[in-house]
What does this fold into?
Amino acid sequence: MKKKHMEMAITGAAVIALLIILANTFMSPEKNATKSSSEELDSQKGKPADNKSADVAAKDKDWGRDPFGLEKLPEEESVVSFVLNGIIWDEDNPYAIINDEVVREGDKIRGYKVIEIKEGSVLLDDGTERFSLDVWQ
It folds into this structure.
């Protein structure tokens, strides 16, 4: 009989310990999540505006990617590269083939305007920069 009482006491202590551990595990996140909005505003009054983005970043780490947020696109290179594939020369109506696109004087390609097409080169301008593409480059 003494052995049975000992087993009951150990089992009861283990069940109580398990309940305490489970209660602490499930109650801790709820306390932070159920923080009243006035308490949250009071706690954020002293924070600078930049901390809000840091808070969002910290939440993203916890939860993973935001399914409603926009993906960050890779930034394009600031240098626009052009390849002059060829020139179809006619004194009245010349054409140039730049990056596999056929253009003529006055057309735009990647934000640059085709200013002049000569027999061996094409002059491009975007309003701030003007440069020439040569056939033999």
Observations:
- The longest strand covers residues 112-117.
